[in-house]
Fold this sequence. Notes:
The chain is of the alpha+beta class.
Amino acid sequence: MTGITLAQLAALETEPLRKGIILNIIRDAQIFEKIPFENVNSLHVIGTRWSKLPTGGTWRRLNAGYTAANEGTVEQVEESLFIFGGEISYDRLLSKITNFIEDPVTVQTKMKIKALAYGWKNQFINGDIATEPDGFEGLKKRVANLPTRQKVCGTTSTSATALDPTSSTTLARRYLDVMEESWHYCNGGQVDAIFANEAQILGIGRVMRYAQFNGNLLDVNKDTVGREFVTYKGKPVFDMGYLADQSTEIITNTETAGDAGADSTSMYFASFDKEEGIYGIQLEPMKIYDPLNGAESPTSPAMIRRIDWANGLAMFGSYGLVRLWNILAPASWT
């Protein structure tokens, strides 16, 4: 599909401050390596989702005609842009200090960027307009509104205790089976990225070793800033990390399990595809600028750097996103 990722934007950027900030955002949110953003010219985007296809082709006799079939139905889907960003404000005197271990302005900038990256990642997974009306709907909420097959249960029963894949070879194979099922149900296997927490990523290899699986599904690759990440069938498995408190995971290990216990976790399989999958939309690329052009704020002795980005998610299909749920928190695996 058309569109540009933040990683591609960073490669094209020539202004040092903007380039540095974008690279730091990517460092704290690897998802921006892969998800493309397409420019739109409105704060609301309307698309059409196929609800029901018309009757397929019919057979006819020689010299006979076809019966018209116009009963296919569609539904209108609307996606919105939301304005995301923040300001880095620092006392002008900090720029005069030279006796430091690390530049205090740089420290403030890095901390703000990390907090922004964590906030966007959390919205991407857990965003819910019911609780945050100024942000977009995340993957968890979107999957809940898709066909039931897009929510794959780790166990054979949706009311069972969460799957412990290392308690037996049978359950280890069950884990590998539902991974395969989730992969296939995501746009027919056209997966672009998988999202999980750190423990779950480490757990994939652990299950394969336990099951004595001899296939070659896992590998490693490197991102824009040179860090390694795990791939499954050649596609990245991204650790969604933490909230700004740096202790609460974005994809937790305390989700509600099938038996109503708070001891499970999930993985999300996503296709970045305009027809069936999910992708980013933006009014323009992320803007990073000094609104005062180097001058001091008129209301305080402060300098300002501003990050401003009108963006959102769009999904006009029904089968480009899968949630694999009811997997026991890896710390509790046998």
